[in-house]
Amino acid sequence: MLQLKKAGSQALENLRSEGSFPPSWQSMEELETTTNDIVSRYLDERFKVSRELGGGSLLTELLDRVLRTSDTECMDDTKLSEAEKLELVLALDRQNHKMQLYPRYVELLLSLLEEVTTGEQRKMRVLELASGSGGLALALAEEALRKNLPISVTGSDIVPKFVEAGNRQAAAKQLPVNFQLLNAFNLPLFPEGSFDLMVISQSLHHFTPGQLAIMIAQAAQQTKTAFVGIDGYRSILLTGGVPLMASIQCIPSFALDGLISARKFYSELELDLIAEIATGKRDHTVICDWPLSILTVRFDGRRPN
């Protein structure tokens, strides 16, 4: 319901009709500013279109505007200690295991990697951004090991305790995963093509449109195959469902994070717009695999499935 695809598609057409779209940019700073500005203009234009359409479109647009928030999740609060943040990401890890989300993510990523491994006798290299306590990176490495697939997995986060926790788990499980301290939208200058796949899951909404565009642009420079972003699907159902599921663990701040996150999920057309600005191309898809939105940006010339 909160996808507003009819009004959103018309709003995108209106923006494109203004010319010089997608816009050019010369630096990551300019990309960030430009993307934030255009996404803001897109939402304003969508509101105008919704008013013209009237009825259900306008009501849904108004509801979307009421629900949207720029509040910061507790786990991103600079006043929170790293130990308290770790408690929250471990709660998220437990929830992902209970909901069997990691197997879904791993299946998606392995299908992409198996395309690359066909005919190539080398390790496939994966970098996960904002990996938290490392659940996905560990699950991916474990499944690759089980299938005897030649995959090298690097997890990363900006919080030192997350990195330490990930490396401890990797050592305990004897998995070939290395966790590094990295800023997801200010990556070091890895050599071109250092990775085959760059991934970020359940964190897209933690970043502004401009920061997401930077991540995609960096991936285009350093990744051979694709950037994959996985997050919750923007909908009324998940706005209530995510905090409800989070509340089961009886951690008030985690339940609050669930509510804030669900209100911040990007719509498919917003993700589509951000990817186009970042790459200047249409070599990407955004699909719904309920309850997920999956953005896949290809860098190898192949059209995403």
Residue windows where pLDDT falls under 50 for at least 5 positions:
none
The spatial strand order of the largest sheet comes to 3-2-1-4-5-7-6
Distance between the terminal alpha carbons, to the nearest Å?
A: 24 Å
Order of helices and strands: HHHHHEHEHEEHEHHHEE
Name the beta content range: 15-25%
Q: Helix tally?
A: 11
Q: Taking Cα atoms only, what radius of gyration do you get, to the nearest Å?
A: 19 Å
What is the helical fraction, as a range of percent? 40-55%
Approximate shape: globular
Indicate the structural class.
alpha/beta
CATH topology annotation: Rossmann fold
CATH homologous superfamily (4th level) name: Vaccinia Virus protein VP39
Q: What can be said about the biggest beta sheet?
A: 7 strands, mixed
CATH class division: Alpha Beta
What this model shows, in words?
With about 300 residues, the chain is an alpha/beta fold. The protein has one domain (about 75-300): Vaccinia Virus protein VP39 (Rossmann fold, 3-Layer(aba) Sandwich), CATH 3.40.50.150. Helices cover about 55% and strands about 15% of the residues. The protein has eleven helices and seven strands. The chain has helices at about 5-15, 30-55, 55-65, 80-100, 100-115, 135-145, 160-175, 210-220, 235-245, 250-265, 270-280; strands at about 125-130, 150-155, 175-180, 195-200, 225-230, 285-290, 290-300. Strands 3-2-1-4-5-7-6 form a seven-stranded mixed sheet, with helices on both faces. α2 (about 30-55) packs antiparallel against α11 and α8 crosses α11. It is globular.
